[in-house]
Structure formats: C-alpha cells, structure tokens
Specification:
- This protein is mainly alpha-helical.
- The protein has two domains: about 70 residues, Winged helix-like DNA-binding domain superfamily/Winged helix DNA-binding domain (Arc Repressor Mutant, subunit A, Orthogonal Bundle), CATH 1.10.10; about 40 residues, no CATH class.
- About 55% of the residues lie in helices and about 5% in strands.
- It contains five helices and two strands.
- It has a two-stranded antiparallel sheet with strand order 1-2.
- A hairpin with a 5-residue loop joins strand 1 and strand 2.
- Helix 1 crosses helix 3.
- It is elongated and about 50 Å long.
- About 10% of the residues are buried.
C-alpha cells in the first residue's frame, strides 16, 4: 500500500491518511475483500500514534468503505466507484505547477520531476 504522510503539511496527519486510503479504495487499488494493515502495524510503519490510525479506520467505516471485523481485521467493502474524481488529480497538478513556478523551474524540469516521482512510486 502506498501511503506517504507529510509532517510539514498544514493538513493534519489524520486527514492525509484518511484521504489517501479513501482514494486507494475508491480507485480500486485496495479492492473489496482486501484487509487493511493492522492498526498497530500501520501506525508503527508510518511513525504515528495507533489512535490516529484507529480514528481513520472508524471514519472510513462510517463512510461505508471498510468494515471492522474484530480479530479478522478491517476489510474493504464493495462500494460505488463513481466517487473517483479526476478533479482531485487536477487540483494536485495545479499545486505542482504553482510549486514549479515558485521554484523557477521550466515546464521540462517540472515534467522530469513528475516522471521521476512516478518511477519512485512505481518501484515501491
């Protein structure tokens, strides 16, 4: 599972993790029936408090995306895939474009940085 948290971001860790897991579920990268990592394991892997992961899993359950199955873990549920919004990716692209301009990068340099980022994520 690809999840990256930015401790320097103004977006709270809880919201970063919740949004990323929701995107992975809705996009099908975490398909129905897949178990999410145990709370303690994911918290340790990300270097965050288990209570934060527990709150995220609870929020995803309230949204109908996962089900807490006790000892059997937290399982991704069947869901409506119409929630995938290309606008989210476009908004992220806008942020990348602004950062590239603020850094004085050319379009080619920005494209190269994005391509390198995609390769790094693919290799994970």
């Amino acid at each position: 599972m690809i999840v990256q948290l930015d401790t320097g971001s103004p977006v709270p860790i809880f919201e970063q993790l919740r949004a990323q897991l929701e995107r992975l579920i809705v996009a099908g990268a975490l398909p129905p029936g897949r178990k999410l990592p145990p709370i303690r394991a994911l918290a340790a892997n990300l270097g965050i408090a288990p209570g934060t992961v527990n709150k995220v899993y609870d929020a995803l359950a309230r949204d109908g995306l996962v089900e807490a199955a006790g000892r059997h873990g937290t399982i991704v549920l069947e869901h409506d895939r119409t929630r995938v919004d290309v606008g989210d990716l476009e908004a992220a692209a806008d942020v990348l474009a602004v950062v590239a301009r603020q850094m004085g990068l050319s379009d080619d340099a920005a494209h190269q940085a994005l391509d390198a980022g995609l390769r790094r994520v693919r290799a994970q």
